Amino acid sequence: MSDLLEHAQDQQRQAVREAAARLLEARSPGYTLPQPFYNDQRLFDLDMKEIFEREWLFAGLSSEIPLKGNFMTMDVGNSPIIIVRGDNGAIHAFHNVCRHRGSRLCSTERGKVAKLVCGYHKWTYELDGRLLFAGSDMGTTFDTSEYGLHPVHVRSAGGMLFINLAEQPENCEPFFKTLEFYLKPYDMENVKVAASSSIIEEGNWKLVIENNRECYHCDGSHPELLNTLQEFDDTDDPRATDAYKALVAKKQADWDAEKVPYQLVRFGRRNRMTRTPLLEGTVSMTTDGTPACKKLLGRLQSPDMGSLRILNLPNSWNHFMGDHAVVFQVDPIGPLKTRVTTKWLVHKDAVEGVDYDLAKLRKVWDATNDQDRQLVEENQRGVNSSAYQPGPYSATFEFGVVDFVDWYAERMQEALKEQQEPHLQLA
Q: Whole-model pTM?
């Protein structure tokens, strides 16, 4: 019976893969995706397997686990993950699953431990994942060396932590090394999380990313953000004005003097980084454009660093300024539900109420996040309609969205390229 059930499940999974491949093959370039990619549970499961379990994901900051035994946890779909600091500063990542009967080892978001101990039956693991103790009841022939924690690939780049659940992850070393170079002036080992928030958006994760990848909607939706934000990422933006290009040239001369990198660097459609000015006369993403924190990050001597924008698909975008940084992490929960976590970073020695006011630090992005949540949720409600049809993107205002959707479609098609004859319809 179990073999029959497994065979039936395999057939169903293959049918979903075939149907997804057909939909992607038939999609119109420059248009939104077919409806099932935004609301179908089966395609969400496919996203988790072929995108989130294969790509390098932003997971947090090395400064969040500064000491031996410090850990943080996260979920990638149904897979709980733990990231822990071990001996000699080494950072390890594991599936947060005991090798005894599968219980989660760590149930809190973060903490500090001497060893990793399962609360169910007290199986005990070293911080490098080795099983140390399983109790005498396992018998004399039980070999602890065969039951270490299942490892997860982890990479620290410039103080940002990335994990990958694949057995053989894609080589992203050029991106990681460039990221280290761009973040070196910020001395990310010496920042702290001044504030953190997690909001649930009742929308598909791809709608969350699409909303982020354009500022077409900004003028009518984000008054607080537009007090300081340039609509343009860089001078390659087809809408970039002569005034913006002149400001970029002026600021780049200042950044050269400060010896901080600013050039636009792309790694395919997936990763990019660039430093771009804020509106002239402003230096930080606050309501009045003045610094949110008196103590600057790292070795920086001026607050006027513009915004170093870092994109890491499929789950993160970031803004690094002279006085503080704001990092974002996107975690899909279901086909119609996504968690967006925002962290505000300041120098580790900055004192709340002396060097920074927490309300001022948070105000712009708290407002913007809530506005984006409403936009995504209204988008999702419309996409769910029987009247929905893929609509055209603007080649100028939404080129970043086109890049994301093309990247997603290409990555998914690569994963689905070996197909059999179709026998299931999703739309």
A: 0.94
Distance between CA atoms of 362 and 195, rounded to whole angstroms?
A: 8
Q: What is the DSSP string of 236-303?
A: TSTT--HHHHHHHHHHHHHHHHHT-----EEETTTEEEEEE--STT--SSSSSSS-SBSSPSTT---S
H/E element, 343? strand 337-347
d(Cα 6, Cα 165) in Å, to the nearest integer? 23
CA 56/CA 42 separation, integer angstroms = 22
pLDDT value at position 281? 95
For residue 418, what pLDDT is reported? 58
Which residues lie across from 344 on neighbouring strands?
195, 326
Q: Which pLDDT score, from 0 to 100, does residue 10 have?
A: 78
Helix (H, G, I), strand (E, B) or coil at 394: coil
203 to 118, 283, 306, 329, 372: CA distances (angstroms): 35, 33, 31, 15, 11
Check residue 232 and give its pLDDT. Answer: 82
d(CA 72, CA 64): 8
CA dihedral 291, 297, 301, 304 (to 10 degrees): -40
**Sign, Cα dihedral of 89, 94, 100, 105:** positive
- Upper half-sphere CA count for residue 372 (Cβ side, 13 Å): 29
Report the alpha-carbon distance of residue 135 to residue 177 in Å, rounded: 44
Instruction: Answer whether the bond into residue 314 is a cis peptide, omega within 30°.
Output: yes
Among residues 82, 104, 75, 152, the alpha carbon closest in space to that of 330 is found at 75
Contact (Cβ atoms closer than 8 angstroms) between residue 283 and residue 324: no
Quick one: pLDDT at residue 421? 42
Residues 168 and 147: their CA atoms lie apart, in Å, by 21
pLDDT < 50 stretches in the chain: 419-423
Question: Which of 425, 339, 335, 342 minimizes the C-alpha distance to 380?
Answer: 335
pLDDT of residue 137: 83
pLDDT score of 427: 54
